[in-house]
Amino acid sequence: MTKVLPVAQLTAEAYPKVKRNPSFKVPTKDDVQYFRSFLDFDEILESSNSEELASFNQDWMKKYRGQSNLVLLPKSTDKIAKIMKYCNDNKLAVVPQGGNTDLVGASVPVFDEIILSLKNMNKIRDFDPVSGTFKCDAGVVMRDAHQFLRENNHIFPLDLPSRNNCQVGGVVSTNAGGLNFVRYGSLHGTVLGLEVVLPNGEIISNINALRKDNTGYDLKQLFIGAEGTIGVITGVSIQAAARPKALNAVLIGIDSFETVQKLFIKAKNELSEVLSAFEFMDRGSIECTIEYMGKPFPLVNSHGFYVLIETSGSNKRHDDEKLEAFLSSALETKLIAEGKMAKDLDEYNLFWTWRKSVPTACNSYGGMYKYDMSLQLKDLYSVSEAVTKRLNDASMIGDAPKPVVKSVGYGHVGDGNIHLNIAVRHFTKELEDLLEPFVYEYIALKKGSISAEHGVGFHKKGHLHYSRSEIELRFMKDIKNHYDPNGILNPYKYV
Amino acid sequence: MTKVLPVAQLTAEAYPKVKRNPSFKVPTKDDVQYFRSFLDFDEILESSNSEELASFNQDWMKKYRGQSNLVLLPKSTDKIAKIMKYCNDNKLAVVPQGGNTDLVGASVPVFDEIILSLKNMNKIRDFDPVSGTFKCDAGVVMRDAHQFLRENNHIFPLDLPSRNNCQVGGVVSTNAGGLNFVRYGSLHGTVLGLEVVLPNGEIISNINALRKDNTGYDLKQLFIGAEGTIGVITGVSIQAAARPKALNAVLIGIDSFETVQKLFIKAKNELSEVLSAFEFMDRGSIECTIEYMGKPFPLVNSHGFYVLIETSGSNKRHDDEKLEAFLSSALETKLIAEGKMAKDLDEYNLFWTWRKSVPTACNSYGGMYKYDMSLQLKDLYSVSEAVTKRLNDASMIGDAPKPVVKSVGYGHVGDGNIHLNIAVRHFTKELEDLLEPFVYEYIALKKGSISAEHGVGFHKKGHLHYSRSEIELRFMKDIKNHYDPNGILNPYKYV
């Protein structure tokens, strides 16, 4: 394990209003003793100094840090069930943790919650090449799932920039959207079955469900996107898609977001069934990424917006023809200022590297405030402009010692989803107050969602009313209380 | 309204073990008086003789018939809310009813439940051509939704043989799969938002949700496929797909089901992103349909199985090329015995008419027993063979007076979903006992689902344990009790 030094401020210090729930037991030596009675040596990490467990306590954005002294890394569902039963009986709070790549502080403790890592649940269980049904442990790393399926002529129906670290179970728990949502759709449609350990240690599973199953309420749906608040996902069955024989990409420079929208309609119309991604990045995103990568960007000129369009299909010649015709007519009609089609797979990968590096690039200055929102397409970029203006008006953006390096917007046009990254040198209360609730109020005004795909976690708990009605919130609280009456699973977060 | 004569036996007589729940109030003149206080003349149908309301009391298969004397057909969500509140306060049982095309007795009363028809909730609410978001009242007929979207260069992501009668809300309530599931996937993925009236009259809605929304538990999912047991869906928002510019179909004759499977793998591989349906029909299905349609079948020879493959895409020439290459190589390698590509849209429609007429054809002899199951592809047709053998062994199939005309199997290969239709001259207890629990036990043995897409309803209540575990059943009952504590919504059914 790579040594990770703690750099994030303790969440408990940064958010002093959030108090530890005194009804939770503080884990003791006896508790550890109990866990040792059925866990192997490599299934427990313990330290009297939570800083030594920084890679588990601290989030990827370096924004949140918990103080857990105990990480459990069980290797089987039965062990997880045993852990949960004990924790529930003893009111020990638990944070389930996948690859810990989440962006809303959902996967790290706030205080001394026990970290339940799925890392050691990393086996692929089954694959049926006829139906495309893929079953695996929740802790299988996304990259490994992709590789396995590619070797079996299929693909995992979701991909993410964090694929080298994020886990299948985590992706399902957070209902991640990812880069090919426009083609393969929501996990609510592609997940076929789940195996879940409930807070009381019971195991509920329909992991052997077939493609279609209408025998009653679709219980698994509740756990998709529940961020481990009502159960721990331990196994996933998902519909893999046929592996495309041809992949292609174009990188395009455009001067206004209005044109980005026009281009999207054109792509839906002309690329249709081979369209598998339509991503946009604003100039700031690419500037950060050029600085981070230290390489020249593939396009010659500088533009207000960049679009990456991917096609994938079963016939390279047909796909090329469609994409070339699309690109030529977009250039001829001067809809776009500059465009380049990947000449081979290397260049295709290069284009994607630029897109996938944006979040890491933005996070390389010290930290970042990150917002992830859905809006109607016509309003999509306006939130980025509004935030940049607000930060500029407050003289927050610029060279050091100003706190903000850059405020940028990028995301998935096909899904009406923008990511707003405010790259900062350091986090300050003043900055956070400038951003929140401003961002949420703006989104509420435009009837958007304050979390398109990143979820709620610690960050957006208490803000859901900007996107959800009172009755919806009541229903959600009711679900949480019903399935986790002691509130031990991932506390201080979500609803 | 067309006059429908009652022909089905009363459910209460056919299933004497099912008793009316005495805690439900019998609707009285005062209740009707109350409903009249806020409903218009055309929003109430009342008769002292339930036979006059046969088209609402009796199901499409003529297998179930209730005895309701009261049909409410409100025109607004608020009126539905008012109705539900009153019924809940007064313990009046209610059956929500869409197009009444369901196949498990879910949409008709068993005793004197009030029928809440969504017929008058028939307005399209909104359509956004950029994102493809389509919003409508629950009672919009599927055909009308299709037509509206086609005119707007999109398509509804689901189609059914019953499209002329079934309603959007009913389709969502029953989580229908339909003919293009292999392409557009599950409603759990395509439904974006729902407006639902709860048993107590509260309205819960996220109908304005955008394509992606990760702000808490995805509550709407519970209502998809809940068959109106925990709420009445009154509005639906769904992701429409871009309208394909090219549609094509081939009709194929094949001699064994093993070859059907091989052909499916070949189609997934070669037609991939343009494949939009892969349907199979056995010889018996087509024989029934030839008799019903009174027309010659488009293929020259008789075969054990028939397959209808549809492609849809954005480029006719590309699609044709793919499909022609697919068909030629399948013929050349003698994988298939006979195959015909639709020469134009008329022939394309003709091919589909054959497929879509199978259920009606099977239902034209008097009635039918209908089973709808998921199995692994290798086992898919075996259930049909097992049932036919069982009926033959009992000398049940043949000319009158034998009860069974034919037992046939057809369905969606792409989804591992077979429909088993046992066309009968009349329903008998002896026949039902021969079929059940035999069919369910067979499916349980093969680890399939006893309801792939038709749902549970009255027919499969009490049989769910063949496909679901004890804990799942407990969870389901718990959900029902939690959201409908008085049990007034669609009683005697589901869990």
UniProtKB/TrEMBL annotation, chains A, B:
GO molecular function: (R)-2-hydroxyglutarate-pyruvate transhydrogenase activity; D-lactate dehydrogenase (cytochrome) activity; FAD binding
InterPro entries tied to this protein: FAD-bd_oxidored_4_C (IPR004113), FAD-bd_PCMH (IPR016166), FAD-bd_PCMH-like_sf (IPR036318), FAD-bd_PCMH_sub1 (IPR016167), FAD-bd_PCMH_sub2 (IPR016169), FAD-linked_Oxase-like_C (IPR016164), FAD-oxidored/transferase_4 (IPR051264), Oxid_FAD_bind_N (IPR006094)
Cofactor: FAD
UniProt-listed SUPFAM superfamilies: FAD-binding/transporter-associated domain-like (SSF56176), FAD-linked oxidases, C-terminal domain (SSF55103)
Keywords per UniProt: FAD, Flavoprotein, Oxidoreductase
Family stated for the protein in its record: Belongs to the FAD-binding oxidoreductase/transferase type 4 family.
GO biological process: filamentous growth; lactate biosynthetic process
Official protein name in the record: D-lactate ferricytochrome C oxidoreductase
Catalyses which reaction(s): (R)-lactate + 2 Fe(III)-[cytochrome c] = 2 Fe(II)-[cytochrome c] + pyruvate + 2 H(+); (R)-2-hydroxyglutarate + pyruvate = (R)-lactate + 2-oxoglutarate
